[in-house]
Structure formats: structure tokens, C-alpha cells
Design goal:
Layout: H1 5-22, E1 46-52, H2 58-70, E2 77-83, H3 88-100, E3 105-108, H4 117-125, E4 130-133, E5 146-149, H5 152-169, E6 177-183, H6 189-202, E7 208-215, H7 220-233, E8 239-242, H8 245-257, E9 269-274, H9 277-285, E10 290-293, H10 299-310, E11 318-320, E12 325-327, H11 332-337
Helix pairs in contact: 1-2, 3-4, 5-6, 7-8
This protein binds beta-D-galactofuranose and zinc ion.
Length: 341
């Protein structure tokens, strides 16, 4: 069962090619404000420069699609989407390019938290509001208007609480539990927060051992590679915390290749994050126990913020998206039907 990344890569390449053309639309080709979606007060297209960090996971593909589907010309926007292919220097270049193009708004999904001050300062000097989507930056908060995304520490803590309850139900509260973690990109908010959150619960259980943490880069291939190595290094792994679904998919493959089993009927507990559609198949199949949702549909939320800013309103600095979790005890077939990403 392959994730959507391969198909998504094709889609995002086509979208980027299309957008490249669409993105060349010029200002002043305003749509009439009445009934033609929202436009700026002056009735022209609102230009939005979006620096997307990459296409590494199903989650990321859905996140990009959400922006492309929201910031359309029909809705009154001219979206300039630059995909950084997981390189921060490409994001810094994109921000500087948007400043030169004098866009109305800059949206950034920062791959890591550090290294943004000078690029954001240039945007601020040019009077262009910056909205952070999905991940946070470690910079003075005067350099960005607001953050929209997940509360990663909370996600990590919820995962720890879920494991606590699961082990209690299994009568394993006193058992020594050996845990390994496949982390996302080092320095990324999602990896930092999920690690910190789970650790907050781990420290309440002296019978839980975090044997090792590896960087799976949020990708399926690296996740599988690191899991293979962990299985070779540790005889008794009871739980694998995968900080996104694509790494969980890779971990499941590695566990099966090692002749072991995972999931509610298997030896190893798999905890995952994102809850993308493909992960529901794994939970239904019984290889992943639980998945902590991280909603990728930031497009509409960011559009709402831009409209508020256009109306001269101030917006909250930190805007967490609503998130829940899904596990093997639920009606996953039904829940999967409602998933759009
Ligand atoms: C989370 C996001 C993470 C996802 C991964 O908001 O930053 O990046 O969990 C993605 O799938 O690569
Ligand atoms: Zn054990």
C-alpha cells in the first residue's frame, strides 16, 4: 500500500507549472467585487506569495492543495507558490523574491524554526505582512503577523496519554515498556513539539524506556531505513512513536520485513501523527494503533486572516487548528469516508 506522495508529487508539479502561468497574472485584472469572491478593498486581485517547504509527505501534499484550492483567481487572489524542495535557502530566496515582487501578503511554512530574522525583517521593512502556516519560527514576534497550525506539544502529550490508557487496558501498566521514536526534520516545530509533548508524559512513567530516537525526515523511505536499523539494534521494542504517517508506513514495512508484527493484534504498538487518508487503511488493516490528527487544510484559515487584515482588523498571534485522534477501537471505515486528505 503506497502513500499518496508519489501521486501527490505529480499533482504538485502540475499545479506548480500551472500556477507558474497563473501566478503571472498581473495586478489590476481585478474581478468585480460583487459576487466574484473576495478581493482587496480596491477590487483587484490580492497577491499572495506562499513559500511551501516541500512535498515530503501526504500531509504536505494536502497542505499545498488546500492553498491552491483556496487562493484562486475566482476567489480574488493571485497565488505565487514556490516549493522549496525541503531546502531552507530556497525559502529565504522565495521570501526575498516576493518582497521584490511587492506581493500583498507572504505566507511561509518554515522548514525549521531558526534562521529567518533577516528575510522576515526585509518583508517587514517592505511593509508586507507575513503569516506563518504550519510551523513556527524562532524570531522576534514583531516579524510575523500570526501563526496558523497545529499545537504540536499538545499532540505529543495526547499521544502519551493514549499510550498510558492503552497499557492500562492491556494490564501492562507495570511492565517495562521499551519505546523508540522516528522523529521528523530536526529543528522543525512539529518534531520539536511532538518530542517535547510525549516526553512530558514519559517522565511520569519510570517503567517506560525511550531506547532511541532517529531522524526519519518525515519521509517513508527514511522512516523504513531507520526502523530497520532500530530493529537490528534492539531486541525488544514494544512501542514505535512515528512523528508522521509516512514514517509510520515505512516502519510497518520494516517490521514486517524483520518477520515481526505490529498493530492491535501484533507485538509492536505503532503510534502515528497526521491521520492522512492513507493511514486509515493501515488502521483498518490493523497495523497502526492510533493516529493524532494534524489538520493540513490551512488555506481557508489563512484566507480568513487575510480578509480580516484587508478589513483593517488585528488578528490573534497564535491560531491553533482543531485536532483530534483516531484509533483502532473506532468505526474507521465510516470515519475514513469523511476524510478529504
Ligand atoms: C505538521 C507538519 C509535518 C507533518 C508531516 O504540521 O509540519 O510536516 O506532520 C510534514 O507529515 O512533513
Ligand atoms: Zn517489552
Amino acid at each position: 500500500m503506497r502513500s499518496r506522495v508519489k501521486k501527490g508529487l505529480l499533482i504538485s508539479a502540475l499545479l506548480l507549472a500551472g500556477l507558474g502561468a497563473a501566478g503571472c497574472g498581473r495586478e489590476g485584472e481585478g474581478l468585480s467585487a460583487a459576487g466574484q469572491g473576495e478581493t482587496s478593498a480596491a477590487g483587484r486581485l490580492i497577491t499572495v506569495g506562499f513559500s511551501q517547504l516541500g512535498s515530503e509527505s501526504d500531509w504536505r501534499i494536502a497542505n499545498s492543495e488546500s492553498f491552491v484550492n483556496t487562493f484562486t483567481r475566482e476567489n480574488g487572489y493571485d497565488l505565487l507558490l514556490e516549493n522549496a524542495q525541503q531546502k531552507q535557502e530556497n525559502q529565504l530566496k522565495a521570501i526575498r523574491k516576493f518582497v521584490l515582487q511587492d506581493v500583498d501578503y507572504i505566507v511561509v511554512a518554515p522548514i525549521v524554526e531558526s534562521g529567518w530574522d533577516s528575510a522576515l525583517q526585509e518583508a517587514k521593512n517592505a511593509g508586507i505582512p507575513v503569516i506563518l502556516a504550519d510551523r513556527m519560527v524562532d524570531a522576534d514576534e514583531s516579524l510575523y503577523t500570526c501563526y496558523v497550525g497545529g499545537n504540536f506539544v499538545k499532540e505529543g502529550e495526547e499521544a502519551g496519554r493514549w499510550l498510558e490508557n492503552y497499557l492500562k487496558e492491556q494490564g501492562r501498566s507495570e511492565e517495562t515498556i521499551n519505546i523508540v521514536t522516528l522523529q521528523g526534520t530536526p529543528g522543525a516545530s512539529a518534531a520539536i513539539g511532538r518530542t517535547e509533548g510525549f516526553a512530558n508524559i514519559l517522565e511520569e512513567h519510570d517503567n517506560w524506556n525511550m531506547l532511541d530516537m532517529r531522524n526519519g525526515e518525515f519521509t517513508q523511505a527514511k522512516g523504513e531505513e531507520e526502523m530497520e536499523d532500530l530493529l537490528a539494534a534492539y531486541e525488544d521494542i514494544d512501542v514505535v512513536v512515528c512523528q508522521n504517517d509516512n514514517m509510520a508506513f515505512g516502519a510497518v514495512d520494516a517490521i514486517h520485513a524483520a518477520g515481526k508484527t505490529c498493530g492491535p493484534k501484533g507485538d509492536i504498538v505503532i503510534i502515528s501523527f497526521d491521520a492522512v487518508k492513507a493511514a486509515f487503511d493501515y488502521m483498518i488493516e490493523g497495523t497502526i494503533h492510533v493516529d493524532f490528527e494534524c489538520n493540513p487544510l490551512h488555506g481557508p484559515r489563512v484566507a480568513e486572516i487575510i480578509q480580516e487584515l484587508e478589513a483593517g482588523k488585528t488578528v490573534d498571534k497564535i491560531q491553533y487548528v482543531d485536532e483530534t485522534y483516531f484509533d483502532y477501537t473506532m468505526d474507521l471505515e465510516k470515519l475514513k469516508e469523511g476524510r478529504t486528505y
